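Incident review: delayed structure delivery

Summary: a single-chain prediction request sat in the queue longer than the usual turnaround. Root cause was a stuck worker, restarted by the on-call engineer. No data loss occurred. The affected request and its eventual output are reproduced below so the record is complete for anyone auditing the incident later.

Affected input:
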Amino acid sequence: MVKVTFNTLNPNAPLFTELNSGKYVWWKKVKSDARLYIEIRKDNNINVYFQGGSVVRLHYCSKHKKIQAFTHRKYLYGGDEYGYVDCFSSLDNDLEKIINNIPLKYSGKKGHEKEKWSEKYIQSQYIIKNHPKYIDSEFSYKDESFDIRIDLVECVNGELRFVELKRLDDGRMLKKTDECPEVVEQVKAYKGFICQYEKDIVEYYKKIWAIKNKLGLINPEKCPSSLAKSPLLLIFNQWTYKTKRRTEHTYRMEEILKRESIDYVIESEI
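Output delivered after worker restart:
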């Protein structure tokens, strides 16, 4: 198995070249659909998302010299079957059906309103409503020292910044005592990752930016040139009214984040 690293990403990979040929009607639909967002992956694949669910994962098969497109069976067929299926041949006809099934099937519940304030749903809304601020989402990297998964990567005026998204009521945000909650250790791990791989990360996102430009995707105006040393903890407050308990929860959490020198913002609107 080939190890996937920063250097695996190739701006001239066959998938990107093939998609740029202009012969795929479904790809034009995907790019023009304001509900969807498209992410480039280190292994030269592409993920298309809707409300946090993967509409389709695009892959170039070198053996058969063609694009393969994988979606979850329950999105394509509407049932509860497990596993993924190649839907490339039917994307022109089935793209809308797949999109419509995601709110019904992604969470395993009927109707997305029950999951409206899930972290993945919130994440998707930040991306859709703040284009082209975010250059990437669900960035992951694993080696002997790190096992990293970062919710959002923003790029403002050429500066990259890792963004960890959490809901205010997430159990990882606060313990019953004033010990460091899980989120603090998470952000500190990101800082260590940045310290070790800063140059690699910047060069990697230069390639991401170039690929998105080549494909005509929504992209930050300026190519990345630097990386913020400190990640941002983006806390979403979905509580619609205050109580004494909620106020105390927020106060204690903020005191710990300040004590641990964590950069954070609390927002209640997207």
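Verification: The radius of gyration is 20 Å.
Action items: add queue-age alerting; document worker restart procedure.
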